[in-house]
Write a structure and sequence with these properties.
The complex is a heterodimer. Chain A is rod-shaped. In chain A, helix 20 runs antiparallel to helix 21, helix 22 packs across helix 24 and helix 24 packs antiparallel against helix 27. Helices cover 44% and strands 26% of the residues of chain A. Chain A is of the alpha+beta class. Chain A has a six-stranded antiparallel beta sheet, sandwiched between helices. A five-stranded antiparallel beta sheet of chain A has the order 2-1-7-6-3, with helices on both faces. Chain A has six domains: 164 residues, PAS domain (Beta-Lactamase, 2-Layer Sandwich), CATH 3.30.450; 106 residues, PAS domain (Beta-Lactamase), CATH 3.30.450.20; 112 residues, 2-Layer Sandwich (Beta-Lactamase); 108 residues, PAS domain (Beta-Lactamase), CATH 3.30.450; 107 residues, Helix Hairpins, CATH 1.10.287; 166 residues, Heat Shock Protein 90 (2-Layer Sandwich), CATH 3.30.565.10. The longest helix of chain B has 16 residues. Chain B contains five helices and six strands; from the N terminus they run E-H-E-H-E-H-E-H-E-H-E. In chain B, strands 2-1-3-4-5-6 form a six-stranded parallel beta sheet, sandwiched between helices. In chain B, helix 4 links the parallel strand 4 and strand 5. The chains are: A alpha+beta, B alpha/beta. Chains A and B meet through helix 20 and helix 21 of A and helix 5 of B.
Chain lengths: 840, 145
């Protein structure tokens, strides 16, 4: 059949391939060109050339531009579309979608005859059922008709869609790469081993601190690498160039930008390329800034190390902790771990514990412990146990040990996985001490409660009654313990408002200083009655372990009775004081008066004394002259006087004599208590001897007997004592009985203290008692005191003579000697004078 | 031997009696009298010779016996002249004071001329040790008998 068809083909179509067949097969009868056999020769030749060409060609013929194409062109029309319908079709109808593009070019060729060449031009065509973007490289050239005029266009074309698209994809891929490199902040490098030149992108050069020249020498680039890394990098490069590990290159090192001194850690990745001779001709790759990663990695390494250290430390702590630590797992509470302290607490070895269930180890504790574990499992929070009693076998015997502990949940998403850490401390000593303390506290409390002294304890700044003993309740408060326990003091005793006590108690708690007071008034209402107490109290601060004061203990003693007694006494004393004051006032007045009198008296006395002296002297002068001149008259003119005259002169002489002795005595009296004389030891025997000797003439005349005992030594003024005894003995001689021999006895006695008291003598002195006794005429009883007064005479003046001052002088001297004199007598029965004189 | 004796006494009667009594004594004397102490010192100050013995009243105006004595005992020229204090009354306290001040005798003016003569004789003989009869036979205080 092929042969037949072939045979049927016109000659110009023969050897024209499939398209020649299709042209021949088309019904041309109604076509403007008519049957192929009739076509012009120029057309037949052009078609024959075109159909036999292996290069895609196309012909538009005649003014209507009827379409013809060869087998090579055929694929460009795709599977569904123009082929083969556009054969013989008008171009305008065959290519409507591109007509506006190709018509100008066709018209230009038809009109000018000049060819047109376009490369890779996009001319989308309808094929494969759609408009496709198709790239063409083509030429339009003119075809001559039989009339040698241009009558068609030959198109020689090649579809370059794949090439163009490939090129585009390549460009896009390059862009993408560049973008990636930029986006990843990568440096790129490229080294030519033959030239030793090195290239890099701007970023890389910036990093290396090298100028942005096109090419640089490798050693300059290597110079930026820190010395400690340089050797390593160089050997890595060498390895890559030598083809080791397929020429792959991967190295991390540090570089320094010499200008900015910035140091970066970079990772270089790349490979070497080899030619057929096995020589490396290129070595390129990228450089990544891994400073942050390296730092992070360093930190991570450090953190890991720390974690490791911490873990070791933790394990160490657990192992060495003085606290017992153990771990349990799951609801069965299987022991996972126990530290030595814990093992020691319960006196077990690790193998006895680890892997065992808690309750199987210590069945006795389940009842008490399981609620705690249950709570922990439920709440997933720590639970605590205090002073937990756990009998432990130690040193061969069971001991009651006490523990405080904490159970702490760890890693527990499910109950099975829940780990429980037990941390425990033995507090046996504390609990035992605490129990002891409680026992002692109870004892103390009992002691306080039963104390006969009222005591109470208040707590807190609002003074709540914590304790009050029986004495306090019954005596002071009149309340039952139940009424007041735990109440505020001020609520129980509102009457304390306005009294000082609440403030003082608060002060004790605030300052921590104890306070006490005596005879303090306290008013308390008992059963509606106001009671006033006077109390001694002590408030002692009660301290907590930290030293803070939490309360106060009061001790109160009722001293009301003593207080009232004292008040009475004070009242009485005051009364007494008043009276004493009044009396003192009177006494002072009397004293003042007395003093005034004494002063007046002293003044009078002084006056008297000076008067006495002056008068005795001045009185004696004229008296002496009277005597003197009287005696001169008697001597010279006596013979011429009558007896009567002589008698008168005698009386003058005697009177003058009497007056002289009177004046002498007065002088002596006035000076008797002169205290300017010095007291000395005086031997009375000597005194008496002198007197007897002085008076021997008189004694002889009187035929008197004077006897004296051995006398003592007394303290006094010698001439005054002499005057005393002279006067007394003189008196005894003078007042003797006419018909009886005068007997005078001077006796010495010890003086009793009774006498000293009676005579109101100085009790600090010892006294000599000396008695002068005579057998003379004596003096009437009742005169015992009178005879010591001046000018008091008991006897007739002329008969016995004397001045009447002698005994007054005696008494005055004796008194001035701190002594005393007592006289006693009966008329006609002698007189006795008893002297008391102080001895040494 | 003629004894030069001074008497200082404000009492003219006593001066006269003293001179009368001295003149009757059995030894030769030469009496100079002064009414007070100032006159004495004026006289002595004028370069007159010092006496063998001075009698001096105790109670005198202007310069009393005690002061006079002290002044005599304070002058070297008069230091060794015996001084007899001559007074109406004897006071023990004064006696003591005079003795301490350097008086040789405390003599009471007597109440009769005879006594005056005898006392002066005893005194002068004693103090001046006339005929070997002195040397302290008399007590310091010499009272009228």
């Amino acid at each position: 059949m092929t042969h037949t068809e072939h045979d049927m083909l016109p000659s110009f179509l023969q050897g024209g391939g499939e398209m020649a067949t299709l042209i021949a097969a088309k019904d041309w009868t109604t076509h403007k060109l008519g049957k192929p056999e009739t076509w012009p020769l120029s057309l037949k030749i052009s078609l024959s050339n075109m159909l036999k060409s292996a290069f895609p060609k196309f012909i538009w013929w005649d003014s209507d531009l009827y379409c013809f194409y060869n087998d090579a062109y055929r694929p460009s029309l795709g599977t569904e579309g123009k082929h083969p319908s556009i054969i013989g079709e008008k171009a305008k109808n065959a290519w409507p979608e591109i007509w506006h593009t190709i018509e100008p070019m066709i018209r230009e060729v038809l009109s000018t005859g000049n060819p047109i060449f376009r490369e890779n031009q996009l001319i989308p065509i309808n094929r494969n059922g759609r408009i496709e973007n198709v790239y063409w490289t083509f030429s339009y050239s003119a075809l001559m008709g039989d009339d040698e005029k241009i009558n068609g266009v030959l198109v020689t074309c090649s579809e370059t869609t794949n090439a163009v698209l490939n090129l585009k994809r390549l460009e896009e891929s390059e862009d993408l790469l560049k973008f990636s490199v930029d986006a990843a902040e990568l440096g790129t490098w490229d080294y030519n081993p033959k030239t030793h030149k090195f290239q890099g992108n701007k970023r890389l050069k910036d990093w290396f601190g090298i100028s942005n020249k096109m090419e640089i020498d490798l050693p300059i680039a290597l110079n930026a690498i820190l010395p400690q890394d340089r050797q390593r990098v160089e050997s890595e490069i060498q390895r890559a160039l030598n083809g080791e590990n397929d020429g792959k290159y991967d190295v991390v090192y540090s570089i320094e930008n010499k200008t900015t001194k910035e140091i970066k850690i970079v990772r270089a990745l790349g490979r070497s390329w080899f030619n057929e001779a096995g020589e490396a001709y290129r070595f390129n790759g990228i450089l990544q800034d891994v400073t942050e990663q390296e730092k992070a990695a360093e930190q991570l390494r450090y953190a890991n190390l720390q974690i490791k250290t911490e873990k070791e430390r933790f394990e160490n702590i657990v192992r060495n902790a003085p606290t017992g630590i153990a771990m349990f797992k799951g609801p069965q509470l299987v022991v996972e771990m126990a530290n030595p302290t814990f093992l020691n607490f319960i006196n077990k070895k690790p193998h006895q514990l680890v892997g065992k269930k808690l309750y199987s180890l210590f069945p006795g504790i389940e009842e008490r412990v399981s609620p705690l574990f249950n709570e922990l499992f439920k709440s997933r929070e720590s639970v605590r146990g205090k002073e937990f009693l756990m009998p432990v076998k130690r040193n061969g015997k069971i001991e009651q040990a006490y523990f405080n502990f904490i159970l702490h949940p760890i890693n527990g998403e499910s109950d099975d996985l829940l780990e429980i850490m037990l941390i425990t401390n033995e507090v046996t000593d504390y609990v035992v001490a605490q129990n002891d303390l409680k026992e002692k506290e109870t004892q103390f409390k009992n002691l306080v409660l039963q104390s006969p002294v009222a005591k109470a304890i208040f707590r807190g700044s609002d003074l709540r009654i914590e304790m009050a003993n029986n004495k306090m309740l019954s005596h002071f408060w009149g309340k039952a313990w139940k009424e007041i326990a735990g109440k505020r003091l001020i609520d129980v005793f509102p009457e304390l408002e306005g009294q000082k006590y609440i403030e003082i108690l608060k002060d004790v708690i605030r300052t921590g200083k104890s306070t006490r007071d005596y005879n303090s008034q306290a008013i308390v209402n008992i059963n509606g009655q106001q009671n006033t107490f006077y109390v001694n109290y002590v408030y002692l601060p009660l301290r907590e372990i930290d030293g803070s004061v939490s309360g106060v203990m009061i001790t109160v003693t009722d001293v009301s009775n003593e207080y009232y007694a004292r008040q009475k006494l004070i009242h009485f004393s005051k009364e007494l004081e008043n009276q004493v004051e009044q009396r003192t006032h009177l006494l002072n007045k009397a004293n003042a008066d007395l003093e005034k009198s004494i002063k007046q008296l002293e003044k009078a006395n002084d006056e008297l004394e000076s008067f006495a002296y002056v008068s005795s002297h001045d009185l004696q002068e004229p008296l002496r002259k009277i005597q003197m001149f009287t005696s001169r008259i008697m001597e010279r003119e006596g013979d011429s006087l009558s007896d009567k005259g002589k008698g008168y002169f005698h009386k003058i002489t005697e009177s003058a004599k009497r007056m002289r002795s009177l004046i002498d005595d007065l002088l002596a009296f006035s000076r008797a208590d002169d205290n300017s004389f010095k007291f000395e030891a005086v031997d009375l025997n000597t005194i008496l001897n002198q007197i007897i000797e002085d008076r021997s003439e008189y004694i002889d005349i009187k035929k008197a007997e004077v006897k004296y005992d051995r006398l003592p030594i007394v303290i006094g003024v010698p001439f005054q004592l002499r005057q005393v005894f002279d006067n007394l003995i003189g008196n005894s001689l003078k007042f003797s009985k006419e018909n009886e021999i005068p007997k005078i006895q001077v006796s010495y006695f010890k003086c009793s203290s009774r006498e000293i008291n009676k005579l109101e003598l100085n009790r600090n002195l010892s006294y000599a008692k000396i008695q002068v006794t005579d057998n003379g005429i004596g003096f009437p009883s009742g005169m015992e005191n009178k005879i010591f007064e001046v000018f008091q005479r008991s006897h007739h003046k002329t008969k016995y003579g004397g001045t009447g001052i002698g005994l007054a002088i005696v008494k005055k001297i004796v008194l001035a000697h701190n002594g005393a004199i007592v006289a006693s007598s009966k008329v006609g029965n002698g007189a006795s004078f008893t002297l008391y004189l102080p001895m040494e | 031997m003629r004894y030069k004796i001074f008497l200082i006494d404000d009492d003219e009667d006593d001066r006269d009696l003293f001179e009368d009594a001295i003149s009757e004594l059995p030894f030769q004397t030469e009496i100079d009298t002064f009414a007070n102490g100032l006159d004495l010192f004026e006289y002595l100050g004028a370069g007159h010779p010092i006496p063998h013995l001075i009698f001096m009243d105790f109670n005198m105006p202007v310069l009393n016996g005690a002061d006079c004595l002290l002044r005599i005992r304070s002058e070297k020229r008069l230091l060794d002249i015996p001084v007899i204090v001559y007074s109406t009354i004897i006071v023990d306290s004064i006696a003591k004071r005079l003795s301490e001040s350097g008086a040789n005798q405390y003599l009471q003016k007597p109440s009769s001329f005879q006594q005056l003569k005898s006392m002066l004789e005893l005194c002068i003989t004693n103090v001046l040790n006339i005929n070997g009869k002195g040397q302290g036979k008399l007590e310091f205080v010499f009272r009228e008998m």
